[in-house]
Amino acid sequence: MRHHRLHGRQRMLTSMHFTAAAALTAVFGLPAYTASLATRQPRDATPRVALLSTERARIADPLRRDQLRRRGTVRADLDNDGVLYYVNFTLGTPPQNLRAALDTGSSDLWVNTPDSDLCMSQGNPCSDSGTFSSSSSSSFTALDTSFLVKYGDGTKASGKYATDTLTIGNTTVTQFQFGVSSVSTSSDAVFGIGYPRLESQVQVADLQPYDNLPAKLLSSGTIASGAYSLWLNDLDASTGSVLFGGVDTAKFTGTLTSLPIQSNAGVYDQIMITLTSMTFNGSALADGLAHAVLLDSGTSLTYLPDTIVTKLYTLTSAQYDSSSGGAYVPCSLAGSGLSVSFNFSSTVISVGMDELVISMSDPNGNSPQYEDGTPACLFGILPAGGGSVIMGDTFLRSAYVVIDLSSNQVALAQTKFNTTASNIVEIGSSGEIPSATSVTNPVSATLGVAIGPTGVMYTPTPKASGEGRSCSQPCSLYGWGLGMLATSLLLVA
User: What pLDDT, in 10s, does the model give residues 281-328?
Assistant: First the structure.
């Protein structure tokens, strides 16, 4: 989920997510989470694939979720749309069904215990994510190491690390390490698939670096490289996928090009690449950039340098509401055919307005409006302020992204929306991504490499009267509108 990264790998989590999901189930009768499995094939035949159904859930307040994650920035009293990508899995023997937000921006899997104060509170807030009972698992082993995650607004998840049997689809990993949270202010479990924790990032003396999911799949021999591919599909799609150990060449168009992941003083701890320029409908927004940007599936929106956002808002007539921290545009912009292009050392990803303009209609069809009655929508790009630049889901849906944590590279191509075709190619141990061409002379970042300790929310100067549209009070009052999206998690060996 996209909570901004705090103190390295930590994420901001809020308890509102599952309240919204539960409301959706009650109002719309949406189905329960189910797993669909594909048959594993011998290694010398078709690559072995385990298909796991997940859901992208509509939440009440993506702005608040994103903002709490950003360093030092806490906003409240918001009610806007957002999207989370969940993965279904089991832990223990016999298996206990759980789900967690799939997060490229963090390291750890952690889950709640059923007897925590949060999960025992009124309304059963942990029912959607599920809870893990260690006493019910014969394969559970407690570790004498503390699990602790702290957040910028003072919330936290804490408990102990443990190991147990993890099953994803029809792939099982034994002695998998994860956090068991007995004290938490979030019902939203997190499944981190970023870089494993480094010793320098460990905050307690007795915790040693350990294998998270990509590293464990690699060390167990399930996959040949610590790599995976993201295909989130479009905003309204019903399917998407995450493919561990392989590339699906039918899911993108054009050339798949690889770029080095930007290190931080020689250390690889975050999935960051270098943004070099941007355009909107052919008009330059920024040239000669060398800015590190974080690829973060846990963040719903995209956060860019303030100077770029100011130009983009002028060109799109977007109105920034400093009281909510959101930007709003006429909903008709979604059908304009216009796009924002992001250039990464000559690798260009185009994001259409239909992926950036997000409806905020409530369950009754009511939506925020401008003073002249024009329907208003949330704009999926916000200013980063003093925080890090994040390429969240509003960007990632338009890109086919291959992340190779073994060779420290990312490959990008323009995604192919809603295709039913599939051609899965295994990623071997050579460090080469199949079908990918390396970018010539990639630019190294000079800005944004290290995430600073605080973030300041950008507040632009209000437009003069009569200059563009002003957003009336309902602009920050309505939520809903995005629905639930089934996605898939694939493992390839």
Answer: 989 999 999 999 999 887 889 999 999 999 999 999 999 988 888 899
Q: How far apart are CA 2 and CA 24, in angstroms?
A: 20
The pLDDT > 90 percentage for the chain reads 42
Cα dist from 140 to 113, 135, 176, whole Å: 13, 8, 10
DSSP conformation class of 316:
H
Domain ranges of the chain: 5-229+483-492, 249-476
Q: Which CATH superfamily is domain 5-229+483-492 in?
A: Acid Proteases (2.40.70.10)
- Record the tokens describing residue 16, joined without a space: 């509102």
Q: What span, in angstroms and rounded, lies between the C-alpha atoms of 14 and 174?
A: 30
Strand ranges (E), 393-452: 399-404, 409-415, 424-426, 436-438
Amino acid at site 11 = R
Residue 17 has pLDDT above 70, yes or no: no
**Token pair 């899995």: residue:** 89
Checking if the pLDDT of 40 tops 50, the result is no
Mean pLDDT value across residues 451-480: 31
> Looking at the domain that runs over 249-476, which CATH code has it been given?
2.40.70.10
Closest of 141, 149, 42 to residue 105, by C-alpha: 149
Q: Which residue has the tokens 């010398």?
A: 44
**Is the fold of 5-229+483-492 the same as that of 249-476?**
yes
Instruction: Name residue 160's amino acid.
Output: K
Instruction: With both helix axes pointing from N to C terminus, report the angle between 62-69 and 16-28 in degrees, rounded to the nearest 10.
Output: 160
Catalytic residues: 103, 296
Region 207-225: mean pLDDT is 88
E strands of 421-477, at which residues?
424-426, 436-438
Residue type, 341: S
Q: List, for residues 130-151, the tens digit of each pLDDT value.
A: 999 999 999 999 998 888 776 3
Q: Is the overall model pTM greater than 0.90, yes or no?
A: no
